[in-house]
Structure formats: C-alpha cells, structure tokens
Amino acid sequence: MDKITIDRIKLAHPSIREQLQKDYIECNKLLPKGVRLRFAYVYRSPEEQDKLFKQRPKVTNAKAYQSIHNYGLAFDYVILLDKDNNGTFETVLWDLKSPHHQRVIKFFKDKGYQWGGDWKFVDPPHFEVKGLTWQKLYEKVVKGDVIIENGIKYPKL
Fold first, then answer.
1. Max intra-chain CA distance, the chain
2. Cα separation of 14 and 155, whole Å?
C-alpha cells in the first residue's frame, strides 16, 4: 500500500473517507506486482486551486472553490511502476490505453464515481463523487453548513 495515498485519503470528505480507502485498497490489489496506484490529489485547498488555475500552460478551468477537490470529494490518480524491482515506484505510466489504467478507470466508474475522461474538458486522471456541483457545495460553505475536521471546512452532505 502507498502511505502517501493513505495520508491523502485522510483529508477526503468525512462522508466518503472510509469507503474511498476501501476502494483504493481493493483497486490496488487488482494491479500486478510492480504496479501501484497513487492518489496525486484528494483534498486541495482553495489557495492551491488558485495557484493551479493561474499556472501556464493551463491545467484547470477551476478557480478556488470551483473544484470538487476543494471539498474533499474528488481525487486524481497516477499509476506508478517499480521498473527496477527495488520497491521505489518512481516511474509514472502515462499511457491511458495501458491495461493498468483501464483497470483503474473501470473499477472506479463501476463504484459510481464520475470520470473526468468522459467530460468535454477531458481530465483523465480525475474522479469525483457523482451528482454534486461546486456551486451547491460552495453555497453550503458560505452559509456555514459545514463540518470542520483537520482544520478544513467540509460542506455537510
């Protein structure tokens, strides 16, 4: 298992945290030896979001509070390879057509997550909880309809 990912899952919205960890573990077990699933992002602060928004070349259309990551209800993933068989998992597998990516995509779509690869603004490493909009989540945060954990304000669902 990947400690970095487990630590990132601890910042996910409290309503999905436990299931997300179970799903992560289950999906990782579907991958062969020498291949590991890592969550690159789960929760992303509004400050981090704005920094990404301003980055060039453009990587996101979402400003602070306009990403489901800002509410801990999304995750981005990468596939890591242990090319040298030394347990380091330092090589990123970018080929989305690889069976490893396809297995991860199918797994999380089957679990009910919305995949960014199906969007008009294609975002293949992104998954999020279906049926939520940043506008409704932001409204809850502004109104104070939140749960505060880890110093993070999560909207009540």
1. 51
2. 10
Q: How many domains does the chain have?
A: 1
> Which range of residues forms the domain containing residue 13?
3-155
| CATH at residue 133 | 3.30.1380.10
Per-residue pLDDT, averaged over 84-92, amounts to 89
d(CA 43, CA 152): 9
Q: Which residues contact 98 (CB under 8 A, 6 or more apart)?
A: 79
DSSP structure string for 55-118: -SS---S--TTSSGGGGT-EEEEEEEE-TTSSS---EEE--TTSHHHHHHHHHHHHTTEEEGGG
pLDDT tens profile 3-21: 999 999 999 999 999 999 9
Query: How many CA atoms within 13 Å lie on the side-chain side of 72?
Result: 26
Give this prediction's pTM: 0.94
